Amino acid sequence: MRDTTGTLNRFDRQLWKKFWKLAKPYWFSEQKWKARRLLLNLVVLTVLVNGINVGISFIFRNIDTSLARFPNTGDSSTFWRLIALYAGLLVIATPIVVLFDFVREKLGLHWREWLTNRFLERYLYNRAYYQINLDAKIDNPDQRIADDVRAFSRTSLSFLLVILSSVITLISFTGVLLSISVALSMTLIAYAIVGTVITAWLGRRLIGINFNQLKREADFRYGLVHVRDNAEAIAFYQGEVAELAQLRKRFGDALRNFDLLIRWERNLGFFTSSYNFLVRALPYLVVAPIYFAGQTDFGAITQAAIAFDQIFRALSLVISQFEVLTAFAAGVNRLGSFAEAVEPTALAQRKSTTITTTKDEQLALDRVTLLTPNYQRTLVNNLSLKLNLGEGLAIVGHSGSGKSSLLRAIAGLWNTGLGHIARPVLGEMLFLPQRPYMVLGSLRDQLLYPHRDCSSDEAQLNRVLEQVNLAELPERVGGFDVELDWANTLSLGEQQRLAFARLLLAQPRYAILDEATSALDLDNEQHLYQQLQEMKIAFISVGHRMSLLQYHHYVLKLEGNTHWQLLLAQTYDAA
Ligand SMILES: Nc1ncnc2c1ncn2[C@@H]1O[C@H](COP(=O)(O)OP(=O)(O)OP(=O)(O)O)[C@@H](O)[C@H]1O
């Protein structure tokens, strides 16, 4: 899998490029002015917060000095004045700090909203969601859209602000520190550089481990969702033990990787903790001799310690944030490869060397050779046929001979192979897949799908339900607007009839039916096909039942060895 190659384990140009490709569009989008305005507010607030910090360091320097002088001067008023000043500063500082947090969250929210919408659009554009499933290169797209995007916008923003405030801190406190001791400033810089290099070296494996952690957590969650989605089948099979083993395995994988993660974090912790402890003594070691020599006042030691601490934090950004940084890098890698996969150009490229399709009034296949998406098996070789309006085609053949696959090719879902397909626009064709698809929503949503916004009065909906022998359904479920778990509430045959009702309501020119009546009794099947014929909807059906043949003009028989025969339905029936 592309995602687990070695390149993702490093902080390198590649990672930076991926990050920038993900981050840039928002700041140059139609929302750019709002985004930039919020960012500007944040920058101003960051400067203010830092200004307040510098002010506080000066107040405490003077407080310390006034306390140190008290035995000689007996003057306590300076101390109280400074305390009052500090209290005054707090009154101003509190709303600024609160506002800073608020604006940061607000911008994070806006960024997430924009980025999630962009990903959702691209995911559902050009059937990227289907292609991604087929390629199996991108695991758990749901997690990438839901969790990784959220983490990306939030963490990018907090890093940006941390870096910004570190730069401001550096500028403001370096002056303070330099005024106290040049030697201390130099010591600090050298210390931070050495620390950062060692941290990056010690923690180099953390990105890869974090990457795997995200994947394994998502796999575990998917396992749980799978049990929920297939609860009935599992209950019938009494497959609890097998499911439990499967879930435990997934959870175990996530735990083992997490164990590895905390081991590496521990190793890193040995270094970063001692690094942080040692640094506390440094300012005293350097400034105390200057104080002993009478070259500076006592308060300078405190202020040096504060300034030193602030600059140290700014310079040690990579060290203090290293674990967060590696998790972030892993998220950028996952999101980056997802963005590449759903990019419209990537989807278009995939299509250029394959079965081509054009728009036409009638359906026609011209020398179509169809392969499975992994190019491992040829299903049909050199197939040509033309279907005029009003003619029905039945596709028959052994299980696995490629019947459904041919429908997928007509729908443009699969295009691995050669040849050309001419067909009406997809809006004029309606496909009923093998497994009836029940949408999340009300009975009305079921019937109108995929055109949720089109208006249909209840009389019309009732009429269609009558046509598919489901007239009593609205009353049974409590009306057209009640939301139910339809896939688990209706029988398979009822679901198939409901899908048929959808078809009759949409009135497409072509209906493509993949064993769409397999769960129905013969009477119901006959009734539904009669409706199609009355409405002059042309149809292609896949099925194993001989009873189907009577509704079709032609039969396409797939032999299973890439060969095929096109026969008149009567000829096939007689044979
Ligand atoms: N995503 C896929 N990747 C690779 N091979 C696939 C994929 N989907 C299906 N196949 C293979 O393609 C072949 C044809 O499958 P298809 O679903 O078209 O068969 P079918 O004739 O409709 O079978 P049935 O009557 O059992 O529904 C099968 O061997 C199947 O295993």
Describe this structure in words.
With 575 residues, the chain is of the alpha/beta class. The chain has 2 domains: 12-349, ABC transporter transmembrane region fold; 356-574, P-loop containing nucleotide triphosphate hydrolases (Rossmann fold, 3-Layer(aba) Sandwich), CATH 3.40.50. It has 21 helices and 12 strands. Strands 6-9-10-4-11-12 form a 6-stranded mixed sheet, with helices on both faces. The protein has a 4-stranded mixed sheet with strand order 1-5-2-3, with helices on one face. The longest helix is centred in the middle third of the chain and has 53 residues, at 240-292. Adenosine-5'-triphosphate binds next to α14.
Please describe the topology of this protein.
Elements: H1 13-27, H2 32-73, H3 77-124, H4 128-135, H5 141-180, H6 182-202, H7 206-229, H8 231-237, H9 240-292, H10 299-315, H11 317-320, H12 322-342, H13 344-351, E1 356-359, E2 363-371, E3 378-387, E4 393-397, H14 403-411, E5 417-423, E6 429-432, E7 441-442, H15 443-448, H16 458-467, H17 473-477, E8 483-484, H18 486-489, H19 492-506, E9 510-514, H20 522-534, E10 538-542, E11 554-558, E12 564-568, H21 569-574
The structure holds adenosine-5'-triphosphate (ATP).
Quick rundown:
With 575 residues, the chain is of the alpha/beta class.
Keywords:
alpha/beta; about 10% strand; about 575 residues; Rossmann fold; ABC transporter transmembrane region fold; binds adenosine-5'-triphosphate; elongated; 12 strands; single chain; disordered N terminus; 21 helices; 6-stranded mixed sheet
Approximate helicity band: 55-70%
What's the number of structural domains? 2
- Summed over residues and divided by their number, the pLDDT gives a mean of 85
Write out the strand line-up for the largest beta sheet, numbering strands in chain order.
6-9-10-4-11-12
CATH superfamily caption of the largest domain: ABC transporter type 1, transmembrane domain
Count of helices? 21
Shape type: elongated
Q: Please identify, by name, the CATH architecture of the largest domain.
A: Up-down Bundle
Report the biggest beta sheet as strand number plus sense, adding barrel if it closes: 6 strands, mixed
- Can you tell me the CATH topology of the largest domain? ABC transporter transmembrane region fold
Distinct bound molecules:
adenosine-5'-triphosphate
The CA-CA distance between the termini, in Å, is: 50 Å
Instruction: Quote the beta fraction.
Output: 5-15%
Which radius of gyration do the C-alpha atoms yield?
34 Å
